[in-house]
Design a protein that fits this description.
Number of helices: 4
Strand content: under 5%
Structural class: mainly alpha
Oligomer: single chain
Radius of gyration: 12 Å
Helix content: 40-55%
Number of strands: 0
Largest sheet: none
Number of domains: 1
Shape: globular
Length: about 90
């Protein structure tokens, strides 16, 4: 079961439907850019990141969302680099 659902997210997003076989949602999209304004992409990313890093509390998923929306540098765009930045900077933010 995913850590967060659409209703849990705190920021405003576009919710354009993505095909279920889109690699942004179902694959391992390391080189794909994360569209920070697209809710389905951000939600899928947060849930994948939470699984990878064994985050079990909703507050951790919401922290991931906040870091992406408020602190992630604009030039950090690929899923792989966003994941790395989050892991490297997790303890620098509340």
């Amino acid at each position: 079961m995913p850590l967060l659902s659409k209703a849990d997210l705190k920021y405003t997003y576009s919710w354009t439907a993505i095909s279920p076989d889109d690699p942004k949602v179902t694959g391992v999209p390391d080189s794909t850019f994360l569209n920070r304004g697209e809710g389905y992409e951000v939600l899928a990313f947060i849930n994948r990141f939470s699984d990878t890093h064994n985050l079990k509390q909703k507050v951790s998923g919401l922290k991931t969302e906040k870091l992406i929306k408020e602190h992630l540098p604009g030039d950090t765009r690929s899923h792989k680099n966003v994941s790395k930045w989050l892991a490297d900077n997790w303890n620098n933010y509340n």
